[in-house]
């Protein structure tokens, strides 16, 4: 993880500021009630929280009585989660080291940041005990479509491909079903769920929190100008007459079983 914004022509993916995430991204865990219910954690079972971030949701799973291990690729997020007194490992999701250790693997709002899904799914399959469940919510096909189109148009003016830089994977149910089945999972349910999401802190804060991996390619006045132009494009479709911003989220939620 980069600790500060620096122009780059090679870095792709998202970078995380834990303080900004805690202040402006808490809705990610707050809106996870549906996927937690699908997981249905039970006291005493071993659960891996894949892409646990700062541990807010991991803590909730542990409070339900499960024996939870969190794992994240961001050193800063791992540190923040460990500060909650949780057991947290520092590994990339494409290189999980676990072997038949967990009754369930859970992931919320993490797997859309990783394009190499087959490597992730292979590691999850290894980590689960036979019959173990894999329960996920992630960005799905059409997720933040307006935001992505606007940012792509603006960043193109600076010679930057925002979609390639973000390196996200927003899959359809059909596409992800094929990946799951190829990895040895039996799908119990998989759904695409539109979820327009209010942004109390506004779109500018959202962009600087959740698309800073793209915006970090610019510095100073160029970055500020790019954000302003993106807001101008988005205002007619994602901001109401009272100035309230809504992000056009679409979630992919599934439950699958390791046979």
Automatic annotation (TrEMBL):
<keyword id="KW-0489">Methyltransferase</keyword>
<dbReference type="GO" id="GO:0008757">
    <property type="term" value="F:S-adenosylmethionine-dependent methyltransferase activity"/>
</dbReference>
<keyword id="KW-0808">Transferase</keyword>
<dbReference type="GO" id="GO:0032259">
    <property type="term" value="P:methylation"/>
</dbReference>
<feature type="domain" description="Methyltransferase type 11">
    <location>
        <begin position="48"/>
        <end position="136"/>
    </location>
</feature>
<dbReference type="InterPro" id="IPR013216">
    <property type="entry name" value="Methyltransf_11"/>
</dbReference>
<protein>
    <submittedName>
        <fullName>Trans-aconitate methyltransferase</fullName>
    </submittedName>
</protein>
<dbReference type="Pfam" id="PF08241">
    <property type="entry name" value="Methyltransf_11"/>
</dbReference>
<dbReference type="InterPro" id="IPR029063">
    <property type="entry name" value="SAM-dependent_MTases_sf"/>
</dbReference>
